[in-house]
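Q: Got a minute? One more chain.
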Amino acid sequence: MGILSRFFTGTGPQSRDGTAPLSVANLHQEIAKLTEANEKYRARLAERIESNTSLKEVIEAQKAEMNAVRINSRKNMTLDRIDTFFTGTKLRLPEEAYQRFIAKCEDKATPDKIIAFKSEMEKTQHRAFYEQLFTTEMDMAQGFDFTGLRPIVTFQRGETDIAYAAKQGMTLDELKANHIRITIERFDEIIKKEFIDPKRVTAVCEIGAAWGAATRYMQNRYKPDTFHVYEIDTGWAQWLKDNLGVDSKQCDGESLSETESESMDICVASSCLYFMPFVKQWNYLTEFARVLKPGGIAVFNVNLIENTSVRTLKGLLANYFPRRSFGYIPQHCVDTSFPEDQFEKLVKDPTKGFGYQVYRKL
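A: Always. Here it is, folded:
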């Protein structure tokens, strides 16, 4: 047969088993079956893709959740640390600095933004400002309990110490007896009789009084009528007021804003300034200079940068892990607080005597 004859009478497309030729109708049936199978396969494939996508989303969500837990854990630890510090303090913003800040904002921002900003700050009790202002103090307030293997707060613990003394059936004088003894010995050595006439001392101002070792000393030696205390620990501030009769002032952490100029005979800061950054130390010293009467004296101790030997620096690195903030100040900054034409420097070598310095206002 010819080619055309074979084309019209030949076997043509075969069934899948190859036993019989397919008619046009059967061919359409096979195509329909194949199309249906292909659609089912495509549906299963799409379902698997969707399942894999969902699984990927779950995995990503779990990763994000785990990261959030880790981040929030660090955040919570930081917030706990901040809360621990602020729980034991009652602070006010440095008024002059705050007003300068607001003036700068008013120069840059619209009135509606200023109003919203002030409202938010008041709602949060200016927490953002305080966290920034007291970063160094918060850092230096942290220690570590090597027995319990946990972080601890080394100050802002007035209420804790007061409660502990009561639980032990002790007075605070008994609890802090060693500290009080050391203060008496140091002040007897540092504050010479010729520095100031006891009879003229009617007013004393102290910062960082804590449990009142220096406060007791000043009261016993000079018997002042007025005693201003700037103590950020609310527990100690209240105890000093109730038990030693001092006038506890609210702190802003860097000034003596509630004490009038030339109203004090003695200003004292014993073992507290070096818990602050040096710029705050400097400002407290300039405030001492402001509030002292002529003939009045400033008594304080600081850690001087000039005294930081390599041995000291290595010791700080080795012994104060993980703390890395230390309140050192240069002597020339101290001297600028008490200008030579206005003050007499009574302790010539402040490297001795536990770093105490004394200046008398001319």
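A: The two ends are 138 Å apart (CA to CA).
Q: Perfect, thanks.
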